[in-house]
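tool=predict chain=A
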Amino acid sequence: MGTRLEKVIKMRISRFRLAIILCLLAPGLRSSGASTDVKTLAAAVDGHYNHLRSLEAEFTEVYRGGGMERTESGTLWLKKPGKMRWEYRSPKDKLFVSNGRDAWFYVPEDRQARKTAAKKLEDLRSPLAFLLGKTKLEKELQGLSLAPDVAPSGAGNVVLRGVPQALAERISEIVLEVAPDHRIVRIVIQDVDGSSTEYRFGDMKEDVAIGDGRFEFRPPAGTETVEDLGP
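tool=predict ok
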């Protein structure tokens, strides 16, 4: 059971990383139809995340794979440097939270919490690298380009695609949908095994006041704690 749980956690953390990377960088994009200059968009993204301090958004996550489809939703909070909180409310409570030092994944129903050193998330180009201004979108997503063959969900939106270099063995493609107001409203992560995870974002609020306490976690009494802190 421990091995199975570990695989599930690693897969979910990888998807969290990718989603947070793109969510943080989203508001800097500019859309101008088919003539959109991708390099200009990437430069605008880089300029935006350099000053973005925090972000709050409602999200819906849809996983498709193995003949099944699972939809979950909740609220996401991000704060520089390296703080994040994914709070799932439907169909059941779940939590992924990091204070920049430690990352926790907690499912109350399972009465188990898994703890990982945040630096381990950085090793695979986690969102912390972006929060600290270490990388650029064009370098992170190889072959970043327009995706005219992918239908946007909203009128006037632009769709981009690229391959995350650090996760190319597991992720075949990332698709981003950018609305005219410069926000990414949808992210689709295509796995090499044919499965996909889609994130839809709404009610995004930038540079909101978020207390650091929101990114701390203490396992409730009776919760089994599994630690994977490493060296």
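The domain at 35-227 is CATH 2.50.20.10 (outer membrane lipoprotein receptor (LolB), chain A). The chain has one domain: 35-227.
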